[in-house]
Amino acid sequence: MFMSNPFAELSAQIPVAVMQGYIVLMVAFVVIGTILDMIHKKSAKYFFLNAEKAKKNAKREVGAGEKIAIATKVLVVEVATSGEFKNVKRRLSHLLIMWGTVILVATTAILIFAYPTPATPAPTILPQLWHIGAAMLAVGGYWFWFSIRVDVSAEGVPWYRVERADLFILSLLATATFALIWSYTQSKGIAGWSTLFLILFAASGVVLFGGVYWSKFAHMFFKPAAAFQRRVTVADGSREGLPPEYDLSSPEVHKLFPDIPMYMGKNPPNMGPGIRREPAKHY
Known about the structure:
By secondary structure, this protein is mainly α.
């Protein structure tokens, strides 16, 4: 099961052009859904207006080299490792879901376009990655659904309550689950069940990618840009209109705010971790 390319075996029943057309259609769904989402929420308009406002309020100019360094940090922290999550369980679950989805989608496209038939055998690592990606997505997704969701973990709502906002995670879980079951039934030669789970796998993919407009899928494209802009505003001093982070023990800060040493002393004590003194279950 883990060593074989399920799409190569499927080519005996479904033309390769149909499988490739399905992938193209899913890409079109993502592009159209993302554009409609940006138009509806006006996220792109807000982003550019906010960038122009920050540019006018900048205290210094950020050079090209510094912007490259900021972009690298965004890719490493916000994108690759989801460093914005302070809850360790939520972060691990998100990483499993994100990288599982990326691996599953990427290997699906590679297998269908580059190695669609038994005449073009795929390297063993690709089917293995396909199954690993689906398993990562399933583990992270079910962990999130049953244990980590805010309304389940913090508000005591039953895990089986479903709302429209759950479309994204449920379609992700369905895609990964039906992909693994389809691969297993196909490898065992269980024709009827294999066909059923193939249909469910394809249908859940349509719901996932066709539902971009109603899900959180589109935010994956806006999130890195927003994180980059936020870091640039800190570097250029505009800080989106927020006050700077002062060192309360600095003599320069004491000159600006004479009441600090009067009420807190010349070397104010560390005020402690605050809400982070306990597990981050406050949303």
